[in-house]
Amino acid sequence: MFLSWAFFILIIGLIQWYTFLCFKTISKNRYWLASYACFSLLIITNFIYQLYNYDRSEGFTPSISYSLGFFISLFVFQSIIVIGLFLEDISRISLAVYSVFKPNKEKNIFFPQRRKFLSQLSLALAFIPFSSLLYGMYRGKYNYKVLSYELEFPDLPSSFDGFKITHISDIHCGSFDNPEKVKYGVDLINKQKSDVIMFTGDIVNNVSKELNPWKKLFSSLKAEHGVYSVLGNHDYGDYMDWETDQEKINNLQNLKKIQREMGYKLLLNENDFIIKNGERLAILGVENWGAGGFKKVGDLNKAIEGISDSDFKILLTHDPSHWRNKVIPHNYFFPLTLSGHTHGMQFGIDIPGWIKWSPIKWRYPEFAGLYKKAKQYLYVNRGFGYLAYPGRVGMWPEITVLTLKKSKIEV
Ligand SMILES: [Fe+2]
Prior knowledge:
Elements: H1 2-26, H2 30-52, H3 62-101, H4 112-138, E1 145-153, E2 163-168, H5 179-191, E3 196-199, H6 215-219, E4 227-229, H7 245-261, E5 264-266, E6 270-276, E7 279-285, H8 300-303, E8 312-316, H9 321-327, E9 336-339, E10 349-351, E11 355-357, E12 369-373, E13 376-380, E14 398-406
Parallel strand pairs: 1-14, 2-3, 3-4, 4-5, 7-8, 8-9, 9-13
Antiparallel strand pairs: 2-14, 6-7, 10-11, 12-13
Helix pairs in contact: 1-2, 1-3, 1-4, 2-3, 3-4
The chain binds fe (ii) ion.
């Protein structure tokens, strides 16, 4: 523990020293340098203080979230400066070595003007992600986007041609800090006037009581065929310290009870039918199943009990790795699976039809939006809320509207 703290502080210290030199190259003004040093020191000491006093029985509080957000913003800003100047240092060292063997005293190999220019350039470049990360905390996290898709299926029952689903995920109640903005998001969901609303888990960060202040608002989600929901990895209280095992069990029971009081049809490895004109859609919901170290209590075989493979199935499963690992290889055919979990890392470049990129793609190949494999669709919602970094950049909070269409030919 001591060694990891010492290593962390050493790395942060080196970055401070390096970036301070960059600022010094640009200007020798004492006030400018002192302001920068104080600003950095404040963010770093506050983050270390919050981290050191992190209480696992409290979970991720807004104060630790914000201290992390400011720290990440500063770290990205300084890292870009360090990379820029480090590349220049490598060229200077190479030239210095070269000059030992071929001394040429008339030339100044250290190019102070070039150093100043590169410092200014690095600073300007670093300012772009820095300001974006700050904007992400100020506005980005409530910058709700409605994304609409039409999906065609040859085996969709005719009565469901044009059936509209609003899909949301990862509410993370415990993170919200602006009731007005959240209400705007909830109203926007209702404005889609979909036939059904489907929520794919992580309603809280850690504890069921996070729902209390938001219960009334999220109970106002309305659709003709109601709201279906499942649990996500954060709903089980696994990322908290509990005084007793019973306390943890009670918390989960309470979370399920509150969702049912809110009118949500919580599916725990079970299914339900939506019936129209004698035809039916099978809605399946599994508990969390995630690749790697994540909880694996989702049971697809249990969830399909009572339905036949000829039923048109819509599966709700929190973690998209479940689709690749268990749903696609399953002997039943699942035309449409809905997931969340990744949040699109709350950071990325996402221009529909052009580019969709986030560092999380290295962990989750299906990290945001629509995917298709073996004629089966997966939709990964980028999430309604946020967690840890209290913001979003590029990967905005999402409300998805999926319209099901019956296709005449096999797609
Ligand atoms: Fe989540």
